[in-house]
UniProtKB/TrEMBL annotation:
One of its GO terms (molecular function) is carbohydrate binding. Pfam families: GH94_b-supersand (PF06165), Glyco_hydro_94 (PF17167). It comes from Bifidobacterium choerinum. It comes from the Bacteria. One of its GO terms (biological process) is carbohydrate metabolic process. SMART domains: CBM_X (SM01068). Residues 11-287 form the Glycosyl hydrolase 94 supersandwich domain. This is Glycosyl transferase. Keywords: Glycosyltransferase, Transferase.
Amino acid sequence: MKYGHFDDARREYVIETPATPLPWINYLGNEDFFSLISNTAGGYSFYKDAKLRRITRYRYNGVPADEGARSFYLTLMEPDDGAEPAADAALRPVASWSPTFLPLKTPLDSYECRHGMGYSVFRASYAGIDSELTAFVPLHTPAEINKLTLTNTTDAEKIVDATACVEWCLWNAVDDASNFQRNLSTGEVEIEQSDEATLIYHKTEFKERRNHYAFYSVNEPTVGYDTVRDEFLGKFNGWDSPQVIAEGRAHDSVAYGWSPIAAPRVRVRLMPGQSASLVFMLGYIEVADDEKWEDPDDPAKVGIINKRPAHALFARFDTVEKVDAALDELNGYWASLLDGFQVRTGDEKLDRMVNIWNQYQCMVTFNLSRSASYYESGMGRGMGFRDSNQDLLGFVHMIPERARGRIIDIASTQLPDGSAWHQYQPLTKQGNADIGGGFNDDPLWLVASVFAYLNETGDDSILRTPAQFDNKEGSEQPLLEHLRRSVRFTMTHRGPHGLPLIGRADWNDCLNLNCFSSTPGESFQTVKNNDTGIAESVFIAGMFVLYGEQYAQILERFGEACGMDGDAVRAEVADMREAIAQVREATLDAGWDGAWFRRAYDANGNPVGTSEDTEGRIYIEPQGMCVMAGIGVDDGRAAQALASTKKLLTCRWGTAILAPAYSTYRIELGEISSYPRGYKENGGIFCHNNPWISIANALIGNDDEAFAVYTRTCPAYTEEFSQIHRTEPYVYCQMVAGPESHAPGEGKNSWLTGTAAWTFVDVSQYLLGVRPTFDGLLLDPHMPADFTELHIERAWRGTRYIIDVTRTGAPSLTVDGKAVTGNVVPIADPGTKEVHVALTI
């Protein structure tokens, strides 16, 4: 069952009913200001940091779900006596509805939500009024715009009151949701009305420690407003039945403490066939400490905030023409970004995911890591060290300069011994242990992201760029030194079998081999890490072989340019490759179980992910990572491991993380065994590592299975099962319930997942086979045989490469009509606009 359809020409997903299985959301914003918006306009907004700069409230676990925070109400007004309208005071409400369905839930005559690239459009009809609400965050702007257009489709004059409402969060989302003894007494607002507009200011805590405020505005005069939530809603009422909407009038309430809101009410008169538009705006303002007040020397203006920056921001979007121009600019921005990688394969599902939705999701995960979604509350998780490095892999081709800045930010949270904070707050860029530390895979991901950046850009100056350790002044070292410490950390933290120590956990946060938690409610991520130097990770072993070799290649290519002596480079590379060989051998000796790679060794030295166990016998992660690293490829073990993966872990919904799932809690394994069977890390289908299996199959020539792995979790291919998946059919989710679960195929944790980046790496670099390297574009497609022709356009290092692939059985490569030996397209000369490539396979 489908609840909508793709509109590829407009790069939109069209939702045809508000009754989707779950709220289906979109993200607005590209840099600092972000909004989440669902197909019924739920969600919230924040500036940079969803924990520390939350602007509007959102209630997770709310009943009913997804109400409040951003609400729109339309009220049809008529004269009390039924005569022609004369004075507004004589009007009464005769019908009310929400143009987004929620929160009023009035059955609409028609409804449509279109989620596009950084914008969403809601179209509805009711009581002879057509409405169109367009929501977006303009480029380089700390504001969300809501343009509401109303059209009278009847042959009589209509009067419609439009009320928009946001509920303010008192900035710190954790404190806002818990410290009520203080917060119920701190809320403050200012109201500014004129004949041209109304602005309502959220200035809570501005007079003491804050240099920022927010505002909500409308570009027309109002017939009233409210800023007190309980006055707006009334006693015992929810967002679906506000008292002021039922009464047909605003109360002009002014908030002092309690729960402040902004709810301007505008009256619109429409003649038959006439349309009118309103522009509502949610803005964020920062001012210098010495410019906070309108006039600090005037006793009559004590406490009046400096509104000049807000006026300037409001003026940029105070007309429909300005708003439409900003939306056009946003559309042009996304068209240009997505144009950097475009394909025509003959498969519309594949094309739409590669050309549009996968890249779009990669931007969102780059921006927000795992911090703010409908599953991550924005209060506990910031920017993950591991997560953000992986997100870069699918984003770096879009805006390399932003990727460069992010790499330096991430490296600056690395600790001097080469380990790293597991996350940092985006506002402060300071690392913290709020979700634990000691995850021993973290350091190696920095090598992966830097290697990807160098392949994409050739910009080796990043290796010489200084980055702090632990954000401490005076600790700066070139990025290359950060990479050295990353690999050295793994080299010097090996266990009894010569495999890397796992620490608290590795990529699988829930495989806690050193924690032994038995206290109810205790976080597995922050409980004491009892690492005794015994618990080892076969997965990190695969990582070290793969990314250790990438580090060696970086040294060989750029070490001397970074000031290293030639002999020092060769010595470091030799040392590195000796360690890689040792870990490779240890993986084959102690990490091989007979038909697949083991997962780990626990703190007692017992193997995990072994045929010797009755549950958790095989895990997905080492099968993908070890084969990607080339371990076991030459002797057939890689092929055997992938065959076991297909046989024992794969079902119609994807490849499960382990099997059989654990049926009891095993303290020596930790959180992984705490979930019900078939969910999350205990036998769920973790979409993040399915691309590793696809890549691994491609590398050993299993092209059909590589593509099959890709399609099993790809949203466009599973759209027809939306009633089972439940999550958005246009983006990847983190987890799909596995075959041993109560509801196989049900998705959770959509949007913010490393699945997006890794899947784009898989499909663009291994299935379609266009892989950037230091020396050129390596072309090595691994598509099934029924794909006979591929057209790929790839922007790379200032040149557009137009690549046509034809399956003839006679391999050849021509570049601008000239035959080239091998399968690497050389880097074009500077200033070259286009290169035409013909590849036959």
